[in-house]
Specification:
The chain is an alpha/beta fold. The chain has 13 helices and 7 strands.
């Protein structure tokens, strides 16, 4: 009876495991499609966006410049990455012409990495003519030779033109094509001029988000914007401190018989001093170098008061115990 019960319990457990495995497969099959990919990518992007570096929401948000128009974009990832690139370099208005997967698109929002001020205000149009109707001047991006009489500019020249027109009160835009084959000739014909990038002619196709980033970067350069980080201000050391370093270093080298042969000593000293003169050392760097020389000399550097371990306060009982133990040891 015991053996039978053991067999029955094993059979029940095996049946239960198989049922659970079948249920898991069925659930995975239900998710194994567009919805599953969206959920997974949304989760990954959400994890990434919470650890972004370099974002300071206390700073004023730059949001102006030409309109970015994406024609029939296919992937939400590219739309989101394009929005992120726009936010990085101060652009704010994104228009979509007949996006393949419709709008709104959760994948695009996830990949925009908190560029919500752009994603929330995306305008969707059914035709390119509608998307360009209120613009005064438009560039079309393309890497292919077009048989049409239109001026062709590089990205830097185009960005300068856009800046000048923008400051003159014109509403401008930049047109980007599909991921697979870019803009069609009839779409390029709706633009005023062509902008193209100096790329490898044998491998000229750019990802749409990369192309948006390049033009956004060139736009920001025309603003004469300051870099977001800078080297901390530091005055060069006084000559008195520099001369002290010379004396210290030369004295230590003299003890090690570095200056030989003796008749070349003056030239060797000049060379050493010129090295440190060119470096434009700060006060802190002078102190660091003198500490190095002192260590090589075998001298102990003075400990800093703020880095000394705190003194432990001894109680009367601990002192009495120490006296008792010392008395015992002396008796022995």
């Amino acid at each position: 009876m015991i053996i039978r019960r053991g067999r029955r319990s094993k059979e029940r457990k095996r049946t239960k495991d198989q049922d659970g495995e079948n249920a898991g497969k069925k659930m995975f099959q239900q998710w194994d499609g567009w919805g599953y990919r969206v959920a997974r990518k949304h989760l990954i992007a959400s994890c990434v966006e919470h650890v972004m570096a370099g974002t300071d929401h206390r700073q004023k948000l730059i949001a102006d410049g030409p309109v970015i128009v994406l024609v029939n974009p296919q992937l939400g990832e590219n739309i989101g990455a394009a929005a992120r690139a726009m936010a990085n370099f101060g652009l704010s208005e994104l228009r979509l012409v007949d996006p393949r997967d419709g709008w709104p698109n959760p994948v695009a929002r996830a990949n925009a990495a908190k560029a919500d001020h752009i994603i929330d205000n995306v305008a969707v149009f059914s035709t390119l003519e509608e998307a360009l109707s209120d613009l005064n001047f438009v560039y079309a991006t393309t890497a292919r030779q077009r048989e049409m009489l239109k001026p062709v500019r590089g990205p830097r020249e185009a960005a300068t033109t856009l800046r000048n027109r923008h400051q003159g009160g014109e509403k401008t835009g930049i047109l980007f094509g599909r991921e697979r084959w870019g803009l069609e000739s009839v779409e390029v014909a709706l633009a005023d001029e062509i902008v193209t990038f100096p790329v490898n002619p044998a491998f000229a196709s750019l990802n749409i988000a990369q192309a948006v980033l390049l033009m956004s970067y060139e736009w920001m350069l025309t603003r004469d914007a300051e870099l977001p980080i800078s080297e901390p201000a530091s005055l060069p050391a006084r000559k008195e401190d520099l001369f002290g370093l010379f004396d210290h270093l030369e004295g230590a080298l003299e003890l090690e018989n570095y200056f030989r042969p003796p008749h070349k000593r003056a030239t060797m000293v000049e060379n050493l001093r010129n090295i440190f003169q060119k470096a434009e050392l700060s006060q802190q760097e002078i102190h660091a170098l003198r500490g190095v020389v002192a260590t090589l000399e075998g001298r102990k550097t003075r400990p800093r008061k703020d880095r000394q371990p705190p003194k432990t306060q001894r109680t009367k009982k601990s002192r009495k115990a120490d006296n008792t133990s010392s008395g015992d040891s002396s008796a022995k």
